[in-house]
Each structure stands twice: as structure tokens, then as C-alpha cells.
Amino acid sequence: MWQAHWIAAPAALFLWWFATGILLWRVHRADRGDADQHLNSVLYSLPLLVLGGYGVAHSLDDTGRFGVWVAFLSAMMIWAWAELAFLSGVITGPNKAPCPQGLDGQGRFRAAFLAVAWHELLLALALAVLAYASKGAENSFAFWTFAVLFGARISAKLNLFLGVPRINVHFLPKPISHLASYFRTGPITAFFPVSVTLLALGLGCFLERLMAAHSAQTQGALLGFLLLSILTALALLEHWFMVWRFRDDRLWSWMIGPAARRRAHTVETTITKRTEHGL
């Protein structure tokens, strides 16, 4: 049975790499255009959101391999549109300013949340809709795909806010470059081991379900839990990139461009100075 799914792992890895690269290419290309370029990117990509919703609706009762692929890809489409809307600065939060100096921990957290509030609420709403749609459905892999992405995203943002040794700001386009002021470079906090442990436990659960699906000869479930395992493993790896001496931006440097790299160097210097002064 494994032979029928050998393509899933490289396909999922390529999708993760290529989709991320396309998003970065689009937002950094829009950076070089006029003020309407970012808004146009979000508007012109709305069919991606519609197609994702349509795919989810039509995959709920299909437990075969095709239905699982449709569910997985549809959830990724919805996520990609929301991510593009965020990176383009169209859906972020009411706070558009850099982090003020002199804030205490609670004030800094409030300001940081208001900087991304609308986007987080959008993702939470999408997750709730997928949960409702998947309740009692035969195929709930769209919901679980989005749930893994959502959980990993919240965990990564909290770690960047609390502090990690390695912060990559090369991906931040101009509309959200102010968010770097809310990041903190430094030793990991107690939250980091908690977050990677939870991701590892999630990965273990999906692997256990994967083995059970293999024993039961259930091809759709086998493919679904294989994709979820790969996605969770990638999320776990991205968390460790915050600690390891590895510049993951090199994976997409061909999409970013030299201007964005120069701006990122300036932002990194600013983050370091703010951290050194306890801001």
C-alpha cells in the first residue's frame, strides 16, 4: 500500500516550498510597485479563496485518495489567501505603528495583538467554519490541515514575541515591516520547549493514526495522515529554525530580491538594539 503514496511526501514538501516562494515573490514584487499593488494582489487572488471553499465542500463525503488530496489542497488554498492578505498589509490589525518604547510586558502584548488582531480573528473564523462543516463528515482532513497550520502559526508568533535566538525578517514586506519591532532576540523562554513538545506530540498522534490506517488498509486515511504528519514535521522544523544556526530564508532567496535583503539587515539591527535596551 505504501507504493501508492510514495509521491505524497515529495509533493507535500514541494508544495510547501513552492507556495511559500510564490507568496514571497508576489508581495516583494508588489513592494516595488505603487500603493495599490498589494491590494490588487489580494483582490485578484480571491478566486483562490472561493476555489478552496468549493473544494472543501465537495471533499467532505469523499474518503478516497482523491477526496483527501482535494481536502488538503483546498485548506492550503484558503490558508494561502489569508496569508497573502496578511503579508500585503490588507488584513492585519488596527495598530499599524511600531512598538512604542517603554511599554511593560502587558502593554507590549496588547500592542502586538492589536497589530495582528483582524488576521488572527479571520483565521479563527475560518477554523470555526471548517470545524462546523466537518462535523459528522466522512472526510475531515481539510479541518485538520488548517488546524495544524493555525496552531503552528500561533505558536511561532508567541515565540517571536517572547524571544528566540534566531529571527528571520527577510520575509517581511513593507506593509508589515513594523511588526519586527514586536519581535525579541534572545534566549528561548519556557514557552519554546512547551510549543515544540506539543508539536512533537501532534506529530506522534498523526504517525500513530498513519500506522493504524496502514494496518486497516484504508488508503484515504493513510494518505491523509501522511500529509498531516509531513505538515506537522515541517512546522516543528520551522520552530527549530528559530534556534539553530540555519538561515531558512536561503530556501527562498531567489524569490525575495536584494532590496528586501538589505532592508531586512537594517530591521535585524534595530531588533538587536531594542532587545539590548530591554525594549
Structure description:
- 36% of the residues are buried.
- The chain has one domain (2-276).
- With 279 residues, it is mainly alpha-helical.
- It has helices at 8-31, 37-44, 46-59, 65-87, 105-134, 141-162, 191-215, 219-240, 253-256, 258-276.
- The model has no long low-confidence stretch (mean pLDDT 86).
- It is 68% helix and 0% strand.
- Helix 1 (8-31) packs across helix 8 and helix 4 (65-87) runs antiparallel to helix 5.
Task: Give the SSE layout.
Blueprint: H1 8-31, H2 37-44, H3 46-59, H4 65-87, H5 105-134, H6 141-162, H7 191-215, H8 219-240, H9 253-256, H10 258-276
By secondary-structure content and strand pairing, the structural class works out as mainly alpha
Q: Please state the overall shape, judged from the principal axes of the Cα atoms.
A: globular
**What percent strand?**
under 5%
Unreliable stretches: none
Largest sheet: none
Rg over alpha carbons:
19 Å
The number of distinct structural domains comes to 1
- Range of helix content: 55-70%
Q: CA-to-CA gap between the ends? A: 55 Å
Number of H- or I-type helical stretches = 10
List keywords for this structure.
about 70% helix; globular; mainly alpha; about 280 residues
Summary of the model, kept short:
The protein is mainly α and about 280 residues long. It has ten helices and no strands. It starts with 7 loop residues before the first helix and ends with a helix.
